[in-house]
Give the backbone structure.
Amino acid sequence: KAGVTQTPRYLIKTRGQQVTLSCSPISGHRSVSWYQQTPGQGLQFLFEYFSETQRNKGNFPGRFSGRQFSNSRSEMNVSTLELGDSALYLCASSLEGGSPGELFFGEGSRLTVL
Amino acid sequence: AQSVTQLGSHVSVSEGALVLLRCNYSSSVPPYLFWYVQYPNQGLQLLLKYTSAATLVKGINDFEAEFKKSETSFHLTKPSAHMSDAAEYFCAVRNQGGKLIFGQGTELSVKP
């Protein structure tokens, strides 16, 4: 059974640009969550999608957005990139949103903003 | 609001020694608690989880954790450290909204 797949794994952008990251969840999983990981702030929750609807949202500015498609694949977008957006962006999927079950994480997309 | 505090950002043990990684949580309702491990350049992998069943939870690779409500703790232990256990470990609590709230992480080093 394939795990959570995130693309691209690495990317470099410059300030002011925008970026789109993709996440394909484990087959059958309907919930997808996104987290930002930085050395200073640790792991911070961005948002969660379930059945194409955003169920939860973290405390990030509106430059961070996401969506989920009917096949449960998800994308997140960051517009007007800032240096502080450099981070590892992790996607996680689970069978059902809101359950106490485990989240299965992808290997992440490492974004560097110059 | 729920929160997690991991005591010690770095822990170093010798191979074969006991591993103890500390986690305290804050929650106004019975929590769901998790320990995840992250190896370099990889995502997070679940070690174990507590969901109000047995207070002593066994996970993968001989790790276990004990839920102690009176101490609001969920410390992670392993009787004998292996070199392959060197990684970063995260304690997390799941709130009523379903999202995971992570601690700041503890980096475990294992000396030969």
Summary: The mean pLDDT of chain A is 92.
